[in-house]
Amino acid sequence: MERNLKEARTAAHLRLRYSGDELLTIYANRAWFGDNQIGVEAASQYYFGKEPNQLDVAEAPLLAGLIKAPFVYSPYKHPDRAFARRNEVIDSMVQNHVITADQGQAAKATSLRVAVR
After folding, report:
1. In this predicted model, what pLDDT tens digit does every residue of 44-66 receive, in sequence order?
2. Residue 16: inside a domain
3. What is the rounded CA–CA span in Å between residue 45 and residue 114?
4. Domain containing 77: what range?
5. Residue 12 is assigned to a structural domain of this protein
6. What CATH number should be reported for the domain holding residue 71?
7. Residues 97, 98, 100, 102, CA torsion sign
8. Can you tell me whether residue 12 is helix, strand or coil?
């Protein structure tokens, strides 16, 4: 209970100091993406060989899905799981009106295209 109260207090302080977008940026730049990759920049370069702003609608959801469990959804170790998780993220993006249904279908029809390691 005490830990939950501390977490709630910390969250409230963070929300007063930073916007939601700022908090997401801070988190994304410190998140672990597996294979010793920390942050979106490193993960984007490692998995796709490109900058984050160059990722397409089929690639960005793969990175977003990795945060949940990087080892479980590693496209190098478990491409089938990575593909399924990426598609879950794409479905969520469609449901939340981040992308259109047509964009989601096109992205889901795209195979995994990660950099060769």
Report:
1. 999 999 999 999 999 999 999 99
2. no
3. 10
4. 31-108
5. no
6. 1.10.3810.10
7. negative
8. helix
Q: Domain for residue 6, yes or no?
A: no
Contacts of 110 (CB under 8 A, 6+ apart): 58
Residue 117 above 90 pLDDT? Answer: no
Tokens found for residue 83: 């593909």
For residues 72-92, average pLDDT: 97
Question: Structurally, how many domains does the chain consist of?
Answer: 1
End-to-end CA distance of the chain, in Å? 45
**Which candidate, 56, 78, 58, places its Cα nearest to that of 68?**
78
- Look up residue 38 and give its two tokens: 């920390």
Question: What are the phi and psi torsion angles at 50 (to 5°)?
Answer: -150, 165
Q: Full-prediction pTM beyond 0.70?
A: yes
At residue 27 the predicted structure's pLDDT band, cuts being 50, 70 and 90, is: very high
Per the structure block, which two tokens stand in for 87?
A: 């598609």
